[in-house]
Amino acid sequence: MTIKGKAYIAGVYEHPTRNADDKSLAQLHAESAMGALADAGLTKDDVDGYFCAGDAPGLGPLSMADYMGLKLRHMDTTETGGSSYVIHVGHAAEAIALGRCSVALITLAGRPRAEGMATGTVPRAPVAASPDAPFEYPYGPTVANQYGMAAMRHMHQYGTTSAQLAWIKVAASQHAQHNPNALLREVVTVEDVINSPMIADPLHRLDCCVITDGGGAIVVAKPEIARSLKRPLVNVLGAGEAPKHQMGGKVDLTYSGAVWSGPAAFAEAGVSHADIKYVSIYDSFTITVLITLEDLGFAAKGQGGKLVADGNLISGVGKLPFNTDGGGLCNNHPANRGGLTKVVEAVRQLRGEAHPKVQVKNCDIALAHGTGGSLGTRHGSATVIMGRE
Amino acid sequence: MSTVERKYPAPAVNPEIKPFFDAAAEGKLALKKCAACGQIHHYPRAICPFCGSERTEWISASGRGTIYSFSVMRRVPVPYAIAYVTLEEGVTMMTNIVDCSLDAIRIGQRVKVVFKPTDGGPPVPMFGPA
Ligand SMILES: [Zn+2]
Q: What is the pLDDT of residues B97-129, one digit of tens each?
């Protein structure tokens, strides 16, 4: 059994706010949900499946179904950090293929800016009874220094340079200048990135994603419903997911779980790399993009630096346009979780609804990838490949 | 030498891992080895992550290793170096590199264990120049 052709992305929405001082968390989820339903041409009463992750308030689907007044017959709370929502797309397609629901709603929201979180530079308090915490928390693991270790090892082993990583941010900034909602719209150069303050060696401030409030939502629908709507048809072609961890102490920071999620998604979709016109790649840090592109097979392991350099990720300039909304590096990283917005921009590209300055020509097949958790310890990788009909 | 040290948060000790921190209090680095498959793992578990056996036993490590990777956290009041050190026994553990200039740390550098006090808990293993 496969999900290929069994479900369509009917609606997407990225909340325009980047600083939600005046909104509650449930409100942000619901506003995002209503936005995606309106985009699809559906209402909340059409929803019978609901998907959310650890950012949802209270008891997740119970609290949000209560708040929004949903009547559900399917729920999924798969929680893999920022990649959760990419996994949710695959799971929603599975649920629809099995007839467990007809219209699946996925929401994300958070207010880290409003709450004043020092997201990347202060160790997050460990989740209660997390078995790894006694062997990590005393050492001050932050998001930034964990990804820093991954970058440091990649540089050591493969000769990757700070300038190559900087090109990833440069490309994102080239795209973000056209996005009126982007938090950072200023175009930056390789020198700007390298000369920005060092946060955690070898990652500079401009190697790090933004911290934003906001949210987003995705509506996945069964074919009969999707075809009845007045929106371009975006088909879920294939999906893959996998955790990667420390392997009992056989630590290898040079690759991610994309080495498993990617091939699974490509195999299910039945497409090759040459077929992919656009990629949304999770960009918590520049190094996240580089390692992911290698693991997805767009470059040989260790050769990612050459792939991303010299503007090759810039739409209209390079061979592999990525994150044309400006991504997490420039546009938006709502709730410190960038997976949902990765799917949203890929859908915009497939519909031909990206900003004209960054719209990829004849974009019929696109890939979105999420990396939740940490490249430096354990993370969940998720890949989804979508096609326009 | 860095003169100011970060205050190290205490590990939350539970019965499964208490022997590790009891050993640390005696200045010894303990690891778990599986009697069924013969492999050493870290962090220590009651059940072997490689073969699933419950026949895991505590062993003493040499305390010597090399730096696999590291990152100096700069944008904090007291900069510090997080690292993964690969021990002679073959497992790689998260730690801090201490008792040296943060700018002199290199991947591949040989290091040896030192135990540093934590804020209200048992000492934890860190690594300094060998
Ligand atoms: Zn074993």
A: 999 999 999 999 999 999 999 999 999 999 999
Domains by residue range for chain B, with CATH: 18-129 (2.40.50.840)
Closest by Cβ to B107, choosing from A137, A156, A198: A156
- Judged by CB atoms closer than 8 Å, whether chains meet at B75 and A246 is answered as no
Residues of chain A with a CB closer than 8 angstroms to some CB in chain B: 121-123, 126, 129, 131-142, 144-146, 148-153, 156, 197-203, 246-251, 253, 377
Provide DSSP, A275-329: G--EEEE--SBHHHHHHHHHHTTSS-TT-HHHHHSTTTTSTTTSSS-B-TT-III
A25-30 average pLDDT score: 98
Residues 6+ apart with CB under 8 A from B22: B122
pTM of full prediction above 0.95? yes
Residues of chain A contacting B14 with CB distance shorter than 8 Å = 129, 134
Cα(A223)–Cα(A13) distance, integer angstroms? 20
DSSP state of A181: T
- What distance in Å separates the CA atoms of residue A378 and residue A141, rounded to the nearest whole number? 12
Least Cα separation, residue A361 to chain B (angstroms)? 41
Taking the CA of residue A277 and the nearest CA in chain B, the distance in Å comes to 35
Burial of A10 (0-12, 13-18, 19+ CB in 10 A): buried
Contact between A210 and A328 under an 8 Å Cβ cutoff? The reply is yes
Please compute the mean of the pLDDT values over residues A105-110 and round it to a whole number. Answer: 98
DSSP B100: S
Compute the distance between CA of residue B95 and CA of residue B109 in angstroms, rounded to an integer: 14
Q: What is the rounded distance in angstroms from the CA atom of residue A13 to the CA atom of residue A161?
A: 36
